[in-house]
Amino acid sequence: APNTSTNTFTFNLGVNYFPSIENEPEFIPSKESKKFTQDIKYNFALRSGINESDINGMGQFPFLVISAYADKRLSRKSAIQIGTDAFFSEFLKELIYFNSVAFPEFNVIGNEDWKRIGVFIGHELFINKMSLITQLGYYIYYPYDFEGRVYNRIGLKRYFGDRIFGAVTLKSHAAKAEALEFGIGIRL
């Protein structure tokens, strides 16, 4: 924030056309086993960065997100996720204080809790050691109204070995970005 842009989800469709049958590439069957199974894995991640509120000139503040979630691989390329996030956003503490002083008509006392807890479902698309993650979440602990209760996260994750990963994700509320998150985690 301040955010005046729109975050857009898009979909692309492609078609290949071969004008002559002689130039058609030969099909090479996969030598890998078609069946893929993996137990449920448990993930723990810490995400952090710096963001600011929608009020210009308020300054930038650090934030921390602690995530715990389980994932189940559906195939070599795909997994589903379910988990929880705990958000500690310092800018929200300052925004609450600012609104309590500057806008008494908002009925903000100034001592509202600035922490939030959310639950989410997600999908992970594996591409070698990289993966694309998408998550849709809902705040279950939401003492102060900021941007609505539903949030989404999209980003890239890079695995370093079988267990350790790093991630860069964008957390937003519909079309309004809240933070670019840099994270590390472990998959057990």
Topology:
Blueprint (H helix, E strand, L loop, with lengths): L40 E11 L9 E13 L4 E12 H13 L12 E13 L2 E12 L8 E11 L3 E10 L2 E12 L1
Antiparallel strand pairs: 1-2, 1-8, 2-3, 3-4, 4-5, 5-6, 6-7, 7-8
Give the CATH architecture. Answer: Beta Barrel
Number of domains: 1
Q: Into which percentage range does the β-strand content fall?
A: over 45%
Overall average residue pLDDT? 91
- Main sheet strand line-up: 1-2-3-4-5-6-7-8
Number of strands: 8
Radius of gyration: 21 Å
Q: Find the CATH topology.
A: Porin
Give a quick account of the main beta sheet: strands, pairing sense, barrel closure. 8 strands, antiparallel, barrel
Q: Please tally the helical runs, counting DSSP H or I stretches of 4 or more residues.
A: 1
How is this structure best described in words?
- Helix content is 7%, strand content 50%.
- The chain has one domain: Porin (Beta Barrel).
- The model has no long low-confidence stretch (mean pLDDT 91).
- Strand 7 and strand 8 (176-187) form a beta hairpin.
- Strands 1-2-3-4-5-6-7-8 form an eight-stranded antiparallel beta barrel.
- The protein is mainly beta and 188 residues long.
- The radius of gyration is 21 Å and the shape is elongated.
- It contains one helix and eight strands, in the order βββαβββββ.
Quick recap:
With 188 residues, the chain is mainly beta. It is 7% helix and 50% strand.
Question: What structural keywords apply?
Answer:
188 residues, mainly beta, Porin, 1 helix
